[in-house]
Known about the structure:
By secondary structure, the chain is α/β, with parallel strands linked by helices. 43% of the residues lie in helices and 12% in strands. A hairpin with a 4-residue loop joins strand 4 and strand 5.
Amino acid sequence: LAAASDVFVENFVPGKLAEMGLGYEDIKRIAPHIVYCSITGYGQTGPVVQRGGYDSIAAAVSGLMHITGHEDGEPVRPGVAMTDLATGLYTYGAIMAGLLQRYKTGKGLHIDCNLLSTQVACLTHVAANYLNCKIEAKRWGTAHGSIVPYQAFKTKDGYIVVGAGNDHQFVTVCKILNLPEVSKDSRYKTNTLRVQNRKELIDILSTRFSEKATIEWLQLFEGSGVPYGPINNMQQVFSDPQV
């Protein structure tokens, strides 16, 4: 079967398949062209590779849970298995690259994909902030650590998420909320200042958002150029015409 196959995918604890005569070196002797992909919790080397790996455990060890949840709340598991899903996507990309290499060289290879490495890689700017500047991460709820406003706001009957990614968009948000004086306030002129004065600004915006229903705000933001959207439940998701 291996001799006639292009890809071999396995998710056993490292070393287990080798004990059964099905490790990479075993398969390579039969099928040197094979793209052999191992998916594990912690990879092929290191002090804890023999541990089993589940999505939630990797999300905890990688720091994802540390940065997920309300600012003053406990760590939270994402609503779906994001680490599992991301690892699957990384695996897909690695296998495709492996097949391309084999097409060019005629040689296969052993790919090591694992939950922990994938999720650490997915920390993106949070990891970069720590590695480059030693800035420890924290939980922000629906908000963003370095862009304000960029979060969910409670309306009369639900929630709307609004992201003002630049100063022009912030001015537009203030116009829609009929708060022109806020955009002119020296404390909120730039994103840097808005981050510094986050609490005061969010309090003002939250009060205004609470005055109308979600659908009313959606209608007001339509065509404004400001990214926005409701927080939908499943019924709303699967009745959305865009979905």
